[in-house]
Amino acid sequence: MTSMKPTIATHLLVDVSAHGLGHLAQVAPVLNALGARLPKLRISLRSGLSSSQLRARIVTTFTHLPGASDFGYVMRDATRVDLAATALAYQRQHADWEQLLARETAFLAALGPDLVLSDVAYLPLAGAQRARIPSIAMCSLNWAELFAHFFASEPWAAPIHHEMLAAYNSTEFFLRLTPAMPMADLRRLRNIGPVAAIGRSHRRELRGKLGCARDERLLLVAFGGFDKRLSIADWPLAGKLRWLVPQTWHSACPAAHALEGLGLAFTDLICSVDAVLTKPGYGTFTEAACNGTPVLYLRRDNWPEQEPLTAWLEKNARCRAIDESELSASSIAGALDDLFRQTAPPIPQAGGADAAAAILADCLS
Prior knowledge:
- The chain is of the alpha/beta class.
- The protein has 2 domains: 11-195 and 352-364, 3-Layer(aba) Sandwich (Rossmann fold); 203-341, Rossmann fold, CATH 3.40.50.
- 38% of the residues lie in helices and 18% in strands.
- The protein has helices at 22-37, 51-55, 83-95, 97-111, 123-131, 143-151, 157-168, 203-210, 266-272, 282-290, 306-316, 329-341, 352-364, and strands spanning 11-16, 42-47, 63-66, 75-77, 80-81, 115-119, 135-139, 173-177, 189-192, 217-221, 241-245, 256-258, 275-278, 295-298, 319-322.
- Strand 14 (295-298), helix 11 and strand 15 form a beta-alpha-beta unit.
- Helix 5 crosses helix 7 (157-168) and helix 6 runs antiparallel to helix 7.
- The longest helix has 16 residues, at 22-37.
């Protein structure tokens, strides 16, 4: 009798940054595509995001390991970084770097994944190297490049930057998503096309549910999981706008509706509105463009990822930058008029998820 070898499920550890929701927006389509390729794949997913946030986007089976291995940047709000608090947080983290790295190495050795995928914390990459586990990073940015932008001239920064770069350069490769920062200091780059979830339009049903008049426009306000409250309750109802806003605003404005109570996935909302008001961020930019929805964006203060993102968006979607002085109903109504006068470019193809999934499947095999 021929003996049968037992089937061993390959194990992938995925680490998703909780610095906003953009990292999840990148990882989710890739894991969904990977799960279709490898249905027996065991996935452990570590993130400081809630299980409900993760499962709203990831349909393939995974085990959530609550916890955050990075903090990214300390934000004052959706568009402003608290540089002093961020500098202090990095100094504190790297003062205990060896202890952190030892704990991470022990955690990974005990968990025993066959591959680590990080978007885009560097601690699990450094731990994977010590535990002799292959690793891959994936993102449109990396914390080392941002750190150098903000802190390279500080006398304490060089050793920290060195430890960051060493971790990123220890990977099998870094999947650099389109659009992305240059990443000139990373040695093992593989360029990948845009990653974005594709939704379905429920425009007629949504407008009927909200009682929208034919000449009213629906504007989705989405700042990528960061707080940025607009004083819409104090604005005159000019321009016949309806606002879909986060439930946490508790807005008393009769033209505002909590987006969480509408029963639609976020990407389906993007497909069902007239336009999105957001900040420069990978997830909302690519999902709006790849679903053909116009974008108004509020520029971020001194954020180096902004320029490659906005340059890509301007080629691939109807879009317009606004500033704080234009945050009023009448100004936004005028900006929307500008948007709809633009000629819509061809909708870009979101082929990055399948490409990334193919690379991961090859590594796991």
